[in-house]
Amino acid sequence: MNAVAHPVFRLEDYRQTPYTIPRTELCFNLHPEKTQVQAKLAFTPRQDTPAATPLVLDGDELILVSVAIDGKPLPQNAYSATADRLEIFNPPAAPFTLETTTQINPQANRQLMGLYRSNGIFCTQCEAEGFRRITYFYDRPDVLSVYTVRIEAEAKSCPVLLANGNPRESGALEDGRHYAVWHDPFPKPSYLFALVGGDLEAVHDTFTTAGGKKVALAIYVEKSKGNRALYAMDALKRSMRWDEEAFGREYDLDVFNIVAVSDFNMGAMENKGLNIFNDKYVLADPQTATDADYAGIERVIAHEYFHNWTGDRITCRDWFQLCLKEGLTVYRDQEFSSDQRSRPVVRIGEVRMLAAAQFPEDAGPLAHPVRPRQYAEINNFYTTTIYEKGAEVVRMVHTLLGDTLFRAGMDLYFQRHDGEACTIEDFIACFAETSGRDFSQFMLWYEQAGTPHIKAEFDFDEKGNSLTITLEQSLKSTPGQTEKQPMVLPVRFGLVGADGRDMAFQADNHVEGDVMVLSGKRQSFCFTGLKSRPVPSLLRGFSAPVTIELPLSDKDMAFLARHDSDPVNRWQALNRLLLKTCAQMAQTASAPDEQLVDLIGEIAGDETLDPAFRVMCLSIPSEAEIARVIDHDVDPERIFAAWQGLLAAIAQKHQVHFLALWQNIDRKAPYSPDAASAGKRALANILLDYLARAENAPQRAADAYGKADNMTDRIAALRILAHQFPHAEQTKAALQDFATRFAADPLVMDKWFAVQATRAGADTLEQVQALTEHPLFSYDNPNRVRALIATFAAGSQTGFNRADGKAYDFLAETILMIDKQNPQLASRLLTTMRSWRSLEKNRKGKIKTALEKIAHADRLSRDVNDIVTRMLHE
Ligand code: TRP
Ligand code: ZN
């Protein structure tokens, strides 16, 4: 294995720093290759810090130009400075000021961490440990400081100069340069620092808070793209209002700025008062963005804005507590989206996402607790477990407490911990206190990795008109955790009578309203006063992130799919039946269940249902989801055959019906991205997909492509063409047309790359390789790499898993190449192979060889080394 041993960081090793930094003054002299950073840091020893305790600061690729304490240059023998560390051997015992000047090269920074340039714009990304690439500092979240930042730059190329907080002063300098000074009154950790300098265009607006404070809002984008930032601005204002109404949280600075850049490792970043975004989550208009893009923008804008309280005003003590800000903020953005859109449809989307991404992570070699106890590289812990499972844990607190007590707990958290760097214990203690409930067992949700499994038994007693539901929980071992304890699992439920209505019942004391609280290994819940045998509907609203095994016949399950009053469980019941039939088809090459095919048609045509909900029901489980239930000896070809077989059966059976439904959808209204309109478009497009399958001809989709007046319809038609009829003339023409239309817009061309990369079939690899030569493709840009390479690995099951293993080799080579410049991107690409052990023998052997090739390569980054080591660990 790789020769370099990397240190491991452990939660129990947490210690405070010996010094605090109450004030930080920075002066940036921006220059593409030689930016100088003067830092003036006010240090104060803590009360218990012994005199002469060395001051040790973090750095990364820094060049030290000068260093002084209290105005006096330090002699050589008073300190040691390397690229990644500055140590002052014997600092003064009283508060002192450290002045350093460092030099950095933003142009050469391709990691996109620290200060870098994106399309000529200077910008920063400091979370988690990027600030140390700017200046020597205590680069950790528990050192809070008040920042004043001065930026100097060339006026012509950088007319816009931004930093955190409020603008204080600006003016001209000699030699065509100018400056701006920003002051952020709220103490913050270094990871929330941000700076931007460039020639940008802005859209401006204002927001008046509930308390009457007028806030100037601006979204900065590349020149000529301002009109594509209007939806983001609208989403921002709605987020600001919602946080006041739902959580009583008001904005706190005079300005709130957002900047969109095209090179960015993640979605966006919550820097105090100056959020920086991947432009994918800002730019939208009907011609270039899909309904899903609009929804994504709304969600990410809200997410980053909500961090202002959950993340910025109250931050994390250390990176083990990452879910404190991320799980909670995801929960908040989910609630926002639910209030802005259809709550059940949003929830079903979250459940699908958990099942497709988080459950596999929790079942594989990269499984880790929501609060990890150790890490080698923190960048590898920005995972779906921290974010989405972390949000589910907060949701369970809400489920257990109800609206009022949950809100009281949140209020206490904001009031008690404002201005602090906290732990999960601090957060949970607030709910324990306001509710009087004991949360000690609940804390296992933060400690134990893996998806709990519940096995349910139903025992109906005809004579006594009573029902006993017995639930038994289990949790498989995960890396480093073999012994598991029973957890607290809130199971929301209803007892559905023959008429489809929820029955009234009396229950024993572990049932709280409509929630059974399972806390033992095995526990029975008794219900009496029932008139007839009900069909239990368990885990309504997906009340806990678990898998559940139900002793229900297909007939009962179909009954729930038709009648459950909880739409999430209606969909869940249908999805279970679909998964079961797909798995059977894949394993025995059997035909699909006819009654299930009929049921799909029934739901598709049920005009009383929200179109978006019908779309959820019509979109059968993905190949990856089917693979997950099959679990071992997975043959992607057979899964694809089953998946395609089920779609074909549905399409053929309902061809006439679907055509009538499709023709009846009203297309007259002008484009609007709201959820109701989007639902109608999604229904039309999924029906079109089925029609193309039934007709086995590309013409209808080609016509739809030609008529499309918005990106949602255009890309849907293009996808049908490229996936179902890859070699048709109509497909070639449409792909060509798309490339011509959007040649000037790489962000839009990402959709074109992704559509081609996610096609089924072994020859998709050659197509992907050819597309890497396309003039608009670049390995330097994370969005391009994700659109072409990551979507191929995750979205073309038969292409990526082709039997000769060539796609695994291609990915391994690509990862090693990207690792040299952007380790975060490389390690994310690598995680697409995390479920390799469930593959059948031949493919498993080939993918293992590819992984070993990565593991044995020279000079791996810490990021890739950490992931590949864990993936190969026996
Ligand atoms: N805190 C950001 C968010 O969730 C995530 C993020 C943005 C990030 N950029 C990053 C994390 C770079 C690690 C590295 O909103
Ligand atoms: Zn976040």
UniProtKB/TrEMBL annotation:
One MF annotation (Gene Ontology) recorded for this entry: zinc ion binding
Gene3D superfamilies according to UniProt: 2.60.40.1840, 3.30.2010.30, Neutral Protease Domain 2, Peptidase M1, alanyl aminopeptidase, C-terminal domain, tricorn interacting facor f3 domain
Peptidase M1 alanyl aminopeptidase C-terminal domain span: 554-873
Enzyme class: hydrolase
Domain of life of the native organism: Bacteria
InterPro entries reported in the protein's UniProt record: Aminopeptidase_N-like_N (IPR045357), Aminopeptidase_N-like_N_sf (IPR042097), PepN_Ig-like_sf (IPR038438), Peptidase_M1 (IPR001930), Peptidase_M1_dom (IPR014782), Peptidase_M1_pepN (IPR012779), Peptidase_M1_pepN_C (IPR024601), Peptidase_M1_pepN_C_sf (IPR037144)
Example of a GO biological process term: proteolysis
Alphabetically ordered keywords of this record: Aminopeptidase, Hydrolase, Metal-binding, Metalloprotease, Protease, Zinc
Annotated family: Belongs to the peptidase M1 family.
Function: Aminopeptidase N is involved in the degradation of intracellular peptides generated by protein breakdown during normal growth as well as in response to nutrient starvation.
Matching PANTHER family: PUROMYCIN-SENSITIVE AMINOPEPTIDASE
The name this protein goes by in its record: Aminopeptidase N
Protein's organism: Candidatus Tokpelaia hoelldobleri
